[in-house]
Specification:
The chain is mainly alpha-helical. The chain has 19 helices and twelve strands. The strands form five sheets. A three-stranded parallel beta sheet has the order 1-2-3, covered by helices on one side. Strands 4-5-8 form a three-stranded antiparallel beta sheet. A two-stranded antiparallel ribbon has the order 6-7. Strand 2, helix 2 and strand 3 form a beta-alpha-beta unit. Helix 11 crosses helix 12, helix 15 crosses helix 16 and helix 17 crosses helix 19. The protein is elongated. Bound molecules: glutamic acid. The site of glutamic acid has 8 residues, from strand 9.
């Protein structure tokens, strides 16, 4: 049997971290078992579904690298098929028309509430003839007796009494099919073997199993993933900061860091924290996912992000960084190789946004000096070291780290000062701040022309400062 899993988002908003984790678990399960992963867009709620949301979901999946083998399939393209199945249920007497008025249903609900019972439809139209010509919904004839057992891969055995389930609507008055029907038809037609989804759907599962049975089909295996909470214990929402996957991209996170974070959210393998994608695929076990909800912890995500910034191939980091350089209006092809920049900055940034900001100096002159750094390092005592460096660098033909290092060393020796007395003013002159990669690397990245120009700017600044004193 080929394992087939699916991710079935409703396009009523962006791809949020909860959805991404569900997608990741489904994807991992398929990959681990050499199966197929299907993407299905559940867009039957015409009022709330938007094309932007579809794009946001596809974009999020692509950014995370959760590539699907089939789809995206759109439910709105499948209405004919849903109606065909509804017709089949009607023909077999397993569904019926119902024309109960709103008022009647409201009355039922109120009475149930008063008696502290779960509101449920009382089966009033089960044995009545309702003409197809008058407005009506179609209800599924749910079995009245017996139990439905969900042998959940995460939750274990969960049993539901049929007496607690009512005859749910499978087609609305306007002719549109409802969620429980479309999911059943799709899971059946798409030959889904394992349904991994949020546990807010656990209550739908016995209804879906009953419809499948009515159609003469067995049911897939189910795994209901618990929800994600914010660090304050409330359901994760915008209030807790970013919840959209693409916002994490904007904020400078690496997809591998977010995936690693998400896989560990409610799942563990010993005390291992770092998982490459291949390791996730190898080690992930759906039945080891926690039953309880997990809390989102941004600090830990940042820690993982920093780890991946340091450990990933600089080529990969550079590829992701170029997006953030673009956000600063920097074209990284007009300057040093971004791979060298990523390599030089890997120890210095927790996010790619930070990395882009502290690397802008490689591509353009900075606006103003950091006040504290300028005050401390661009003073009259720095004039001579800077002038000598300018002279030495202007004459330098080979702009390599080794040659640059040698020049800084020579000037310090000639002036009989420690290297820092030369390197620090030079650094502030080049980047505007007191921190940057090694001075040789910094010089290399800035390039000769900009280096000379920025030293002149620093000398002018020192002169002006002296004049004002
Ligand atoms: N479309 C549903 C949702 O976004 C998921 C349905 C399912 O996975 O069965 O919540």
């Amino acid at each position: 049997m080929t394992i087939r899993t699916r991710f079935a988002p409703s396009p009523t908003g962006y791809l949020h971290v909860g959805g991404a984790r569900t997608a990741l678990f489904s994807w991992l399960y398929a990959r681990k078992h050499g199966g197929k992963f299907v993407l299905r867009i559940e867009d039957t709620d015409l009022e709330r579904s938007t094309a932007e949301s579809v794009n946001a979901i596809l974009e999020g999946m692509t950014w995370l690298g959760l590539e699907y083998d089939e789809g995206p399939f759109y439910q709105t393209h499948r209405f004919e098929r849903y109606n065909e199945v509804i017709g089949e249920l009607m023909d077999k007497g397993l569904a019926y028309r119902c024309n109960c008025s709103k008022e009647r249903l409201e009355q039922l609900r109120e009475t149930a509430m008063k008696n502290k019972q779960k509101p449920r439809y009382d089966g009033h139209c089960r044995h009545r003839e309702v003409s197809a010509d008058e407005p009506h919904v179609i209800r599924f004839r749910n079995p009245l007796e017996g139990t439905v057992v969900v042998d959940d891969m995460i939750r274990g055995r969960v049993a539901f009494n049929n007496s607690e389930l009512d005859d749910l609507i499978i087609r609305r008055t306007d002719g549109s099919p409802t969620y429980n029907l479309t999911v059943v038809v799709d899971d059946m037609d798409m030959e889904i073997t394992h349904v991994i989804r949020g546990d807010d759907h656990l209550n739908n599962t016995p209804r879906q199993i009953n419809i499948l049975r009515a159609l003469g089909k067995g049911s897939p295996k189910y795994g209901h993933v618990p929800m994600i909470l914010g660090d304050d214990g409330a359901r994760l929402s915008k209030r807790h900061g970013a919840v959209s996957v693409m916002q994490y991209r904007e904020d400078g996170f690496l997809p591998e860091a977010l995936l690693n974070y998400l896989v560990r959210l409610g799942w563990s393998h010993g005390d291992q924290e770092i998982f490459s994608i291949d390791e996730m695929i190898e080690l992930f076990e759906i039945d080891a996912v926690n039953k309880a909800a997990s809390s989102f912890n941004t600090e830990k995500l940042l820690w993982l992000n920093q780890h991946y910034i340091k450990e990933d191939d600089p080529k990969r980091v550079a590829h992701l960084l170029s997006y953030h350089m673009g956000a600063l209006d920097i074209d990284p092809t007009e300057g040093p190789d971004l791979v060298e920049v990523a390599e030089a900055q890997r120890e210095r940034a927790k996010t790619l946004v930070e990395m882009a900001e502290i690397s802008a100096f490689c591509y353009r002159d900075f606006d103003a000096y950091d006040e504290k750094a300028a005050k401390k390092h661009l003073r009259p005592a720095a004039q001579e070291p800077l002038e000598r460096m300018r002279e030495a660098l202007q004459a330098l033909e080979e702009w390599s780290e080794a040659a640059l290092h040698e020049q800084v060393e020579k000037v310090s020796e000639a002036l009989e000062v420690k290297m820092g007395k030369v390197a620090q003013p030079l650094r502030v002159a080049l980047v505007g701040r007191a921190a940057s990669p090694g001075i040789d690397v910094t010089l290399k990245l800035v390039g000769k022309e900009a280096t000379l120009r920025r030293i002149d700017r620093a000398l002018a600044y020192i002169a002006e400062r002296a004049a004002q004193a």
